[in-house]
User: Which sequence fits this backbone?
């Protein structure tokens, strides 16, 4: 499904949400897919650690979005202990699509049908400019750590 100007609907939604939240629309659409942090970094010419992965986890049927550095692996046991939750599991592709309206590999930090509890990896502060998925496998947007924190309302936390 496409939105205005032939832009895929999830990307158009992310652009709309960025504007509504007072964030600059810096969405770029690429000819090739950028479904991983490594692919995105190679396409953008930046460090993998400056890519913000939007990772959805399943906490007893409730989604948890962790915005983590592409250069890091989330320690789910650490996060579960810090949050006081039960086991945190990587969500299935169907669960991700249901709760975000976006497919795995293209999930954006914003633009979901309903607000999702979100954690922001504190290690991302080390970068002046971050890149995040913009709703599909071909789109990314740039943002500062401060603006990402502001527009997502995420809890800042070490996740590794």
Assistant:
């Amino acid at each position: 499904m496409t939105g205005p100007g032939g832009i895929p609907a999830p990307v158009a939604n992310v652009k709309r949400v960025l504007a509504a939240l007072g964030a600059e629309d810096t969405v770029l659409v690429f000819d090739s897919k950028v479904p991983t942090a490594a692919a995105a970094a190679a396409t953008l010419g930046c460090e993998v650690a400056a890519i913000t992965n939007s990772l959805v986890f399943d906490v007893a049927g409730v989604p948890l979005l962790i915005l983590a550095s592409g250069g890091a692996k989330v320690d789910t046991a650490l996060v579960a202990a810090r949050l006081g939750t039960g086991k945190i599991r990587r969500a299935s592709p169907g669960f991700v699509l249901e709760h975000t309206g976006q497919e795995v590999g293209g999930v954006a930090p914003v633009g979901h049908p309903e607000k999702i509890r979100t954690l922001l990896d504190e290690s991302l502060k080390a970068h002046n400019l971050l890149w995040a998925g913009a709703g599909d496998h071909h789109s990314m947007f740039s943002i500062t750590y401060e603006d990402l924190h502001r527009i997502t309302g995420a809890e800042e936390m070490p996740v590794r």
Summary: DSSP finds five helices and eight strands in the chain.
